[in-house]
Amino acid sequence: TIERANNQPSPRIIKTHLPFNMLPDAIRLREKTPKIVHVNRNSRDVCVSLFHHFKLFGGYSGSFELFAKLFLEGYSGYYSPYWKHVNSYIESRYKNMIFLSYEDLKENLVSNIEKVAAFIECKEPLE
């Protein structure tokens, strides 16, 4: 919850799936400028992942073909339309943000951890 996040000592890490325009006003208005690590995923993989998620947890019983059509048209659940959600971060022109791809994280985990560590100014040695 927001209350729980507010009560955590700084520095803290908060994970969210919210689009940029739903982040707290203080961030959107640049009154506070926390570091944001944005991880993007290939849209085809997102579609497949959401399909399985809604089949298991959301009660979706339609075909993948219908789900993919709905995904492409922007009607696939919480983060729809997908590209509007992703673009909300790009278009924000927020300066204190790093963009990573899920696929690159899987392929080059160590170098991406080093990149994030440098971005968040981690003082602990990486082993």
Summarize the structure.
The protein is mainly alpha-helical and 127 residues long. It is 49% helix and 8% strand.
What's the alpha carbon Rg, rounded to whole Å?
Answer: 17 Å
Give a short account of the largest sheet: 2 strands, parallel
What percent of the residues sit in helical stretches (DSSP H or I)?
Answer: 40-55%
Distance between the termini: 33 Å
Instruction: Indicate the mean pLDDT.
Output: 90
Oligomerization state: single chain
Poorly predicted spans? none
Summed up, the helix count is: 7
Spatial order of strands in the largest sheet: 1-2
What proportion strand?
A: 5-15%
Give me the strand/helix succession: HHEHHHEHH
Structural shape: globular
Number of strands: 2
| Structural class label | mainly alpha
Q: What attributes does this structure have?
A:
single chain, 127 residues, mainly alpha, two-stranded parallel ribbon, 7 helices, globular
Structure, explained:
There is one protein chain. Helices cover 49% and strands 8% of the residues. With 127 residues, it is mainly alpha-helical. The protein contains seven helices and two strands; from the N terminus they run H-H-E-H-H-H-E-H-H. It has helices at residues 2-6, 25-28, 43-57, 64-73, 82-92, 102-107, 109-119, and strands at 36-40, 97-101. Strands 1-2 form a two-stranded parallel ribbon.
Topology:
Blueprint: H1 2-6, H2 25-28, E1 36-40, H3 43-57, H4 64-73, H5 82-92, E2 97-101, H6 102-107, H7 109-119
Parallel strand pairs: 1-2
